[in-house]
Design a protein that fits this description.
3 helices, Helix Hairpins, elongated, single chain
Length: 103
């Protein structure tokens, strides 16, 4: 039995759903960032799968996946810097406890 495009797309959809559910329901800012990373990896799987099965001679899906990984690394670095800054000021990273509009 070979692995088809549908298998990769189901895996991608499940990962994206898990990441979306976590990002919308969790309160911890670091867990939310990790869920966003899971969603970006799900998109990478879908891009590479489409590229492999639809146009195997072109590497467009792989190139886009590399760009997404670069953006994800930058997002993680900036996000963690913001979370560390908030933690130093407020002593919490729970998103329900953080209200930056209050003094």
């Amino acid at each position: 039995m070979s692995v088809s495009l549908e298998h990769y797309l189901v895996l991608s959809a499940v990962l994206f759903t898990v990441g979306l559910f976590g990002a919308l329901t969790k309160r911890n800012a670091i867990v939310i960032l990790m869920c966003v990373e899971i969603m970006l990896n799900a998109v990478n799987i879908a891009m590479v799968a489409f590229s492999r099965f639809i146009t195997p001679e072109l590497l467009t899906g792989q190139v886009f996946a590399i760009f997404i990984m670069v953006v994800a690394a930058a997002e993680a670095a900036v996000g963690l810097a913001i979370i560390i800054s908030i933690f130093r000021k407020r002593d919490t990273i729970e998103t329900t406890d953080i209200n930056l509009m209050k003094g």
